[in-house]
Every structure is written in structure tokens, then in C-alpha cells.
Records
---
Amino acid sequence: MYCPHCGKQQEHDGMYCMFCGKSFTETDLTKREPRDKEKKTSKKHLGLKHPYVILSIIFLIGFSAQLYHLNSNYAEWIDSTIYLMKARSIAFGDDAINWRADRAILMPVLLAFFMRLGATDIVFKLVIILWSSLSILLLYLIGKELFDEKIGLLAAFFYSTYYLAIFYGVRIMINALTVTFWLLGIYFFVRWRNSRKGLYWYLFCVMVPLNFMLYFQSVALGIFIGVFLLLTERKFLLNKQFYFGICIVLICMIPFFVYNQIAFGDTFAFLKKGIETNVF
């Protein structure tokens, strides 16, 4: 359809114009050409009769490959030990570890939650495997949104057999979780751009600080999306929805800033220590 305000053709079926940012009325939406919807549908579904059956098989391949290596005889990396020690410190008040400000805190917090529930190392690894395997599903969904089902299935298959995904998926480290957090944020952003539903934009804004608190370098996700919006969605930057999202990011970051102030006596201790140790 064409925007009744600026006259430009739309590339999505959202509620707002992707160029001028003005909303469509119900009358505008009913005038949408049926063939536009048919084209979109035919592009997403390229004759695959059972895509979810294929996706389930791909998921089982990736999950089984990681599960197979769960009991492999390998040495734990020092990072795993550090995260577990900090998690124990959070869960039970044991301050035996000297935690540095340039290490993201979300991973130990998640581990501490499961520790309080009585989880053991094997449970931690199973949870990480499940969370890591979620990346397979997310890649399918992102590929389907951006291209079509076949691209989504191919992306999911390649990741399910990727040796680094299997390698990190059975270790108590941030690598596998970071990939899934990134993909979840990207998925919400892509869904927002295709549908223009505010919920997906707000969910994306929640994922940005969570990614950062899991792995500091994940701030790149917010930077990349910010540059993309500046280049392609300038009108949206004037939309109140955009600023509500920024407020969500700042609110989600408050606990992290408070933690830095309490633990290190400086709200920006993570930044100063990160620059000192070349984390940033």
C-alpha cells in the first residue's frame, strides 16, 4: 500500500508509515491490496509442507550433539570456576572471590538463582544446553522474517552442527548464552520492523541492557541498531515509541549502576576497569 500522508510505498504491513512515521487509520488499512499480502505469504512459505517437522529434526540434531558431549572428559576453564565461585558468593554470602569490575555480573546472578534452588553443575550445563539450543529456533525465525523458510532452516541447520556452538554449549561460560541473547534481541527488532508493533520494540529495548550485563562488548548490539535506525528510520527517532524504549533501557540499567556503586564504590567502575584492562 501507499502512505496517504507522504505517498510512499510501504514495505511492511505495520500500523505506521516507515518514511514519515504517521499512523494509518482503519480505512487506510482496509484499502491494502490483497496481492501484497499474497506476495508476502508466498515469499515466506516456499512450498515446504512440513517446515516445523524439519525444524524439530534440526533442533534435535543440535541438542543431541551438545548432550553427547556433556559427559566428555575435559578440563573446566578458569572462567567457569570464577563464575561458579561468584555465584556461590551471591547465593550464600561467601566472599572468597575477588570479583573484578570488568566482569559482567548477569551470568553469576543466573547461576546463583539455580544454586538457591539446589542445582548442581550438571543442572547448570543442561540449562545452558537448552538455552544455547534456543539459538537454533531463533535463527530459523530470523531467517524466515528476513528472507523465507528455506533460508531460516538452512541457518538453523548450519548452526546446529557448528563445532563452536557445540563446544561452548556444554560449558559454564557466557559464550553460548551471549549468542542466544543477541539473537533474541535481533529477533524482537526484526519483528518490530516488520509489524511496527510497540511490544516488540520494547522487548528489544529490554534485551539491550541484558546483553550488556551478560557480556560488556554486547553493547555493540545497541550501537549497530542505533546506526541502522539513524540511516533508515530517521522519522522513527522522532516517535514517542522510540523514547519510551530508551527509558526502558535506562530503567533496566539502574540495578547494574547501583551494584557497581555498592560493590566498588563507583557507579562507573565497570567502565574505568574495562578501559584499564582493554575490555572496552
---
Amino acid sequence: MDFPTPQPAGAFHFERIRYEKTGHRATITLNRPEVLNCLNFPALRELSTAFEDASWDDQIRVVVITGAGERAFCTGADLLEQAEYCLDHPNAYWKWMGAFIEVHDRLRNIGKPTVARLNGIVVGGGNELNMSCDLAVMVDDTYIRHVGPARGSVPAGGATQWLPILVGDRRAREILLLCDEIPAKQALEWGLVNQVVPRSQLDAAVDAMCEKLINKLPECVRYTKQQLNFWRDLSWHQTIGHARDWLSIHNLAGEVKEGIQAFTEKRPINYTEIIEKQR
């Protein structure tokens, strides 16, 4: 390829996502429902490729991001992959985090409006993916949640940067420090999503939103989006490089080991033992 040229969606043969183009709309579906659409390294690479192609395709005027099945939109990083490849290996995590950052940079700078179709639970990095989109429609029987500080991580891949902008400082602290579920109705009231609808109306609501976005002037929309991204870009670029290195080094910490081991062993985290070891 000598110049940016979009390809037919079927030309990519993705395995962890589904990529479709219909008319002026592209739909990218995280296709790992058996693990609640969590993000492993191959999925991140496929997302980057799909976002790049959609950005190059002038026929595409809106991009929808969703998850396969009805249980989950996305639940963030694949902790089984983290346990196998990244735990105790800071350089491996640094590479993984680079792919995660690239996904967000390509999504925010895709040059056309993006809609998160939140079909199920939205957890951790899944909500960071949601917040990278311009608009969001959520089913009314699910929730948004961050669990990093309770599970051995820091939600610095978008959440610490963007939640204060979206919901205000105190609510951002409540979401990230308490790690409670935020039901759909509350997510709407707090500004985490734009619409909440019954599951039976999700596709119709997303279709209606996409139709409105398609019927706008694409160059004006692109620059409006660029200007709207100012505060998100400022907070992101001031912090994400540091977060990448700190999270990589912190992968050696006992907190991370206990969090990931508790997940893989399907048991509660032993907070008391962690605290005692740090005394």
C-alpha cells in the first residue's frame, strides 16, 4: 500500500472482533463473549486496524462500538492473559499498554463521530473505551463499574483522566475509589451515557442516533469533534506516558500479584494480608 486506502470490511479476517460496513456506518463488535468481551493483545491490535480503516473510508460517517452477546459490552483487560504474560514482567506489560494507548488514540482521532452501544456490563477498561466514544446508548438492565483499586490496578488508561471531565471531581472519586456498580439510570443522570433504553429498543435507538449523525456535514463534524477533544486530549497526553511506565513497574508489586491471583483462583482478595506485608 502506497497511500491510505480503505478496504472492504471482510478483507481483514479478524478473529477477536467483527467489522461491518453498511451504507455510511461502520460497526465494530468485540467478539469474545465467552470472556465478557475483555481485551487481550490480539483484540487490541485488531481494534487499531479497524479504527484506522474506518478513519480512511470517506463513505463511513459514523462508527458504532459494541460487544457480542447480551452480558457485556467490555470488561477491560484480559486478566488471564495478564497473569500469563505480564505479571512480574514489566517490559511485557509496557508493550501491552502501548497497544491499549494506540487503540484510544486512533478511536478519539478517527475523524468521525463514534457511538458506544452498551449492550451489557461496562467494567474498567470497558468504560474507558466507552468514554473514548463521542456518544453512548445503554440498556437499562446493566451497569458501569470500575474495580482497579480493589483488584490491583490503577484506572489510569482513561478513567482518572476523563471521569472528572464527564461527571465532576467528587463523583469521579466515588466511582474510582468505592468501586461500586453505577446502574444505568444513575449513569444517565451523572452524564456517563446519553440515552438509556429497554433492551428491546437498543438497536432502534442506536440506529436513530446514527441517522442523525450521518446527516451532518462531515468536515464540520470532524473539526467540531477535534475541538471538543481538547480537555480530554490535554489530560490524556499529560499523564498517559507516566501511567504506562508506572503501571509497568508496579506489576512487580504484591498488590498486583494478589489481585490477579485472586481472580484466576476465583476467590476474594486478602486485603488484610496485603496490608500486613506492607507494614
---
Amino acid sequence: MDQIGSGLVSKVQKLVQEGLELRVNFDNLDFRILANQVLTNHRNTDVHWINQYITFDRVPSPHLDDQHPLADLKELPLTEYLLSQEEEKQFRSNITVLVARVLTKMVPCLAHIKDAVPKHIPHLYSKEMASKSVIIGLPVQPFNQSKHADVVQYLDYLESFLAEVHAPENQHVPENESSNARQARLDRNLNGIKVPLGGDQLGRERVTGAKKLRLGCDSATARLEHIEEMPELWHAKQAFLSVSFKVYIQQICKIQWHLTGIEGAHGAQVAFHLLLQDNNY
């Protein structure tokens, strides 16, 4: 793993020097090692490690204030965050484009008007979002995100990695550097740096707990102050897709069952395969 990730620092450094803002996402990587011959001291092993990657924000945000709220929520009127008539009109127009893309792709008789459907919906950040996303995979770390002790070690690794990324060019590191000197060097490298660390709800909670365990440390790096945890809604999106799929299947049961003449769940399954042009049916 160290050899695979040895050249990442210079690559990330170059992108950061170009003005890109990095963020780190992580999640658990679970796998099982099966024993060929199960003994009392040699059994199947469940391994829980951390998978991670770096990405960069395409829309710059250094000018935004992250210390004070934009408004007092108690005094904020509903009209400030509810859609206006113009916004509803724009939203309806955007949905029309998305639906038209699906229809011209999936319905053969509408394929001839495919070129009339906009390929990109214009918006305020169209230029920035047209650029290619940069995603850099980081080495898998042998830590369990469900354990605070492991998460503390993972955040220590991340602080050290970020300090290398933001280190001045040709920084000299003494061979026999003391622990205090190392902490001071890392603090200098990361002075004023805050990096978002995205994870699921469990990961975010464990990172918050790990940072609380380090509140009494002397240096900012040891207190893990350069990492800002944030939740990623992966599981919420997965649940939404699951519910949407179930609703879609129910609609097939009600509307599409005549394609097979079979009612019920099996008829829905058959109809679904027919819609996907599965030749097994």
C-alpha cells in the first residue's frame, strides 16, 4: 500500500498549488478471509478497513464566511427558502429536460427528436461544472471506523498526509526529529488549513468522538483541528432509490401486467424483464 501511494503527495500538491480545494471521503471496506482448514486458533476472519479518496471542489468557496451564520433562523421569513414563482418555473423547465432525455432514449418513436433536447441545463456554474472531476484514490488503511481508537489513528495518518501536501517546497526534515519538533512542523504546514472529511453517519459520529478524545492535546495537529467532519447522504440516496424501485414495480403490476397476462409479483417481474429486453422471457 505504501508503494502504491508513494507518488500521490506530489500529484495532490500540484493540484493544491493550482488553487483547487481538496476534500477527503472515506467509508468502511469489509471483507472476509476464509480459512482452508478451520481450527480453534485458525478461523474465518472478518476484516474492516477504511477506503478513502480525494476529490476537489470545482466551484471555489474561499470567499464564503464559515464563522458566522448568514441570518438568524428565528427571524428568517419562509419566503427566503421557499421557491418563488420564477424558481418553480425554472424547476419545471429543468425537470422537463430530464424527462425528455429519458423518453427520447427509451422510446424508439421519439428518438428522432433527441437532438432537440438540451444536453446541458445552463446554470450559474455551468463553466466550472463542465470541467472534468478529479478523483484520486488513497491507500486503504487497516483501521476499523466503528472503533474510536482506530479512527484516532486514521485521523493522525490523515493529518500527517495533509501536512505533507501543504508543506513548503524543499522543506528539510531532520533525520532525528523529536516528537515535539515534528508536531510544531506539522502545525506550521497546516496553519489556517481546514479540510472537509466526508463519511456516512456512523463515520461522522466516530470522527467527532475521536476529536473529542484529543481535546486536551497541546498542538493543533494532535487535536485534529485541521479536519472538519461532514455527513455524506449515501445511505439516504440508496434508501430513496430502493423505495422508488418498489413504487416502480407496483406501477408495473398495475399498468404493465397485460404484457404477460400474469398478475401479481411474478407478472411484475416478467414485465420488468420484458421492458429490459431480457431474452430469457
